[in-house]
Structures are given as C-alpha cells and as structure tokens.
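fyi for ur records
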Amino acid sequence: MLLADDLAEVRAVYGAALRRAGFDVEEAKDGQEAVQKALMLRPDVIVLDYIMPRMDGDRVFRILSAHPRTSAVPVVLLSAFSDKLPPVTRFGCAAFLAKPAAIDDHALDDLCGLVKRLVAAKDKHS
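which gave:
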C-alpha cells in the first residue's frame, strides 16, 4: 500500500500502525512523489492526504484514476480540514477519513480496519 502525506510525523505514526496490521507500506512525502510511486508500484490501496505540496490530493487522485495502471486502486482521502473539502463523491474516492487533532488508537484502528476492508474487497473482485 502507499501512504502519501507531507508530514513526516503522520507518515511515521500511520505507517507504523499499518505495518503492525500486516501491510507493506511505501511512503510518499508530496503529491508528485505519490503519483510516481503509485504508477511504479500499483499498490493495493492508497492513503492520500488532501493538502500536500507540489500537487494536492485532488490532482493526484484525478491523475491516478485516469491512468490504466492505477484506475482500479482504491483511494482513502485524509484531511484535517474536512469542512473545506468538496464533497468526497466528487472525487470518487473509496473513502474519506478526517485526521484527528491528535492521532489516537481509535483513529489508527479506523484507518487499519478500513484499509483491510478495501484490500479484501479488491481481492474478492480480482
């Protein structure tokens, strides 16, 4: 799976939780790197921050959803500013999770559970 977030602390905490849950996690620090890694790796799931440098989550999602290598990869959109986002259905993302002010075990369990469900659903339809 691919975890794209510009904050190293978020990548460290979410990445560690996802690894403990059994996922192989690649990380990207900005939108441009997320596109490059997604096209190269074709991950099972992408966890994508909305506000990132060099390319925001909206643009990343549009590029990946239009590309044949990544169009079927489910994307979980993350944002601490959910009130400023356009409706998630506009993006066609598999899911949206709001980043809590403080990342706690509940938020990590939500993310890991969601990623597990998306991978299982993708495997079922493959």
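The domain at 2-120 is CATH 3.40.50.2300 (Rossmann fold). thats all i got for now
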